[in-house]
Design a protein that fits this description.
The chain is α/β, with parallel strands linked by helices. The protein contains 13 helices and 20 strands. The chain has 3 domains: about 1-40 and about 60-70 and about 210-300 and about 405-470, FAD/NAD(P)-binding domain (3-Layer(bba) Sandwich), CATH 3.50.50.60; about 100-205; about 305-400, Alpha-Beta Complex (Polyamine Oxidase, Chain A, domain 2). It has helices at about 10-20, 60-70, 105-115, 120-145, 150-155, 160-175, 185-200, 210-225, 275-280, 290-295, 335, 365-380, 440-460, and strands at about 1-5, 25-30, 40-45, 50, 55-60, 75-80, 85, 95-100, 205-210, 230, 235-240, 250-255, 260-265, 270, 305-310, 320, 330-335, 350-355, 390-400, 425. The protein has a 7-stranded mixed sheet. A 5-stranded parallel sheet has the order 10-2-1-14-20, with helices on one face. A 3-stranded antiparallel sheet has the order 5-9-6. It is globular and about 70 Å long. Bound molecules: flavin-adenine dinucleotide.
């Protein structure tokens, strides 16, 4: 079966990869001249990479890790020590660590929390631990029910002091969805905490050893092509063309730089576009259908990714850092954490600037000035007195509509990969799967979509069922 997929982010590429495994021929059309969508990256005039986002892979990403294994590229993940490291705003230049010992879950997580006395007091830890019991005992059902509450509301209903938010969860919410705890759905934090507490290596982090388009997307594309599939860049989906019964007749593709729009036909059609863009292409006859109507409630959140190249090393920490600063979220010295970006003498800090709502339309210069102000608080030793660190160059990448903003009530709006249209399917991190808006969510959505496309074909032809190995 020939399946046309629009979008070569991780969801579209994963969908194509797993369609190949199920014996089908995927043809992927990507609008831009670069693969990866939100993991896309580019080289500047000096040959240095800059990225859409600082990306972390977690031990709790079974589908992503399986994909790396299937492609034979698992050695490209650079695993870091099992820790979470936070800057200490009250003591500039110092860090507070949660170190997970080599013990089974949840003992390792509980030990990491109990051992850390910088951030939470004992009564706060006890109250928080009691608050988490329903999530641990009732699992995902309870976590889903909590989607009606923001994280701050959830803490209040469990009588957990707001200081816990200030110390830990402003940083965690910003890292998970680029918004603060007053806005984020408690389902997001509870999902992450559940995975971290229930899986021994769930919170263990890895960096990719280079830029995602080359080190992750390219091997998926090679795999797809080796199985007879196709991947085309510079080929935007312009229009979804319908038959009289409202099923898809064709995708209209192309039209860049005056080139002609071509009509592409297939047995099945998949959109792996971000939610904000597929909403614009939904044909009129589909608009009243519940699944497509609900998409209106899902909206991308703005975020900014910043790259700062300095004339010296600012830190020797080989890990992700939670800045706990007002404007910044997580950051890392990529000259240490990522093999391809390695520089023994100088730092390249990659920082996520969030929440970015009030900054996304400001100039790069204003954003860099504000970032450097925050950095002076994080690294006072490098930015005071004589011989201060010098910024060699910078790059700002703005994403005005990134992953869907996971506010309360969103879970009910997220669509299934199978739609009411018999030959049209959805993939993308916003579609319903248990890993929310993440690389793991995107890969799982693509894999689930492939499975559902295959299933629909089997329902038609009543063939013997083929299953994807390790499907979760
Ligand atoms: C700053 C930042 C940091 C992040 N950090 C992390 C992290 O640490 N860990 C983590 O797990 N996740 C992280 N994420 C989230 C992760 O990147 C996304 O969840 C995931 O990559 C989304 O993949 P996707 O395929 O669903 O969507 P996308 O990556 O958005 O892919 C959609 C694709 O469709 C293409 N497209 C759009 N319109 C058309 C059209 N008309 N025709 C054809 N193609 C089209 C786009 O160009 C794009 O390639 C981060 C995201 C950002 C922005």
């Amino acid at each position: 079966m020939r399946v046309v997929i629009a979008g070569a982010g991780l969801a579209g590429l994963s969908c194509a990869k797993y369609l190949c495994d199920l014996g089908h021929i995927p043809v992927v059309y990507e609008a831009r001249d670069v693969l990866g969508g939100k993991v896309a990256a580019w080289k500047d005039e000096d040959g240095d990479w800059y990225e859409t986002g600082l990306h972390i892979f977690f031990g709790a990403y079974p589908n992503m890790l399986q994909l790396f294994n299937e492609l034979g590229i698992e050695d490209r993940l650079q695993w870091k020590s099992h820790s979470m490291i936070f800057n200490q705003p009250e003591e500039p230049g110092t860090y507070s660590r949660f170190d997970f010992p080599d013990l089974p879950a949840p003992i390792n997580g509980v030990t990491a929390i109990l051992r850390n006395n910088d951030m939470l007091s004992w009564p706060e830890k006890v109250l928080f631990g009691i608050g988490l019991i329903p999530a641990m005992l009732r699992g995902q059902k309870y976590v889903e029910e909590c989607d009606k509450l923001s994280w701050t509301e959830w803490l209040k209903t469990h009588n957990i002091p707001s200081r816990v938010n200030d110390e830990v969860f402003i940083a965690m919410s910003k890292a998970l969805n680029f918004i603060g705890p007053d806005e984020i759905s408690s389902t997001v934090l509870l999902t992450a905490l559940n995975r971290f507490l229930q899986e021994k290596n769930g919170s263990k982090m890895a960096f990719l050893d280079g830029a995602p388009p080359e080190r992750l997307c390219a091997p998926i594309v090679d795999y797809i092509r080796s199985k007879g599939g196709e991947v085309h860049i510079n080929s935007p989906l312009k229009e979804i063309n319908l038959n009289e019964d409202s099923s898809v007749k064709s995708f209209k593709i192309g039209g860049l730089n005056g080139e002609e729009v071509r009509e592409v036909k297939a047995d099945k059609y998949v959109s792996a576009l971000p939610v904000d863009l597929i909403k614009l292409l939904i044909p009129k006859p589909w608009e009243g259908l519940d699944l497509f109507r609900k998409l209106e409630g899902l909206k991308g959140v703005p975020v900014i990714n910043i790259h700062l190249w300095f004339d010296r090393k600012l830190t020797d920490i080989d890990h992700l850092l939670f800045s706990r600063s007002k404007l910044l979220s997580v950051y890392a010295d990529m000259s240490i954490t990522c093999k391809e970006y390695e520089d023994p003498n100088r730092s390249m800090l990659e920082l996520v600037f969030a929440p970015a709502k009030d900054w996304i339309s400001k100039s790069d210069e204003d954003i860099i000035e504000a970032t450097l102000k925050e950095l002076k608080i994080l690294f006072p030793m490098h930015f005071t007195g004589e011989n201060q660190a010098k910024l060699r160059k910078y790059k700002v990448v703005k994403t005005p509509l990134s992953v869907y903003k996971a506010v309360p009530g969103c879970q009910d709006l997220r669509p299934d990969q199978k739609t009411p249209i018999t030959n049209f399917f959805l993939a993308g991190d916003f579609t319903m799967q248990r890993y929310l808006a993440s690389m793991e969510g995107a890969v799982l959505s693509g894999k689930t979509c492939a499975e559902k496309v295959n299933q629909s074909q089997q329902d038609l032809s009543n063939n013997t069922s083929k299953e994807i190995k390790g499907y979760e």
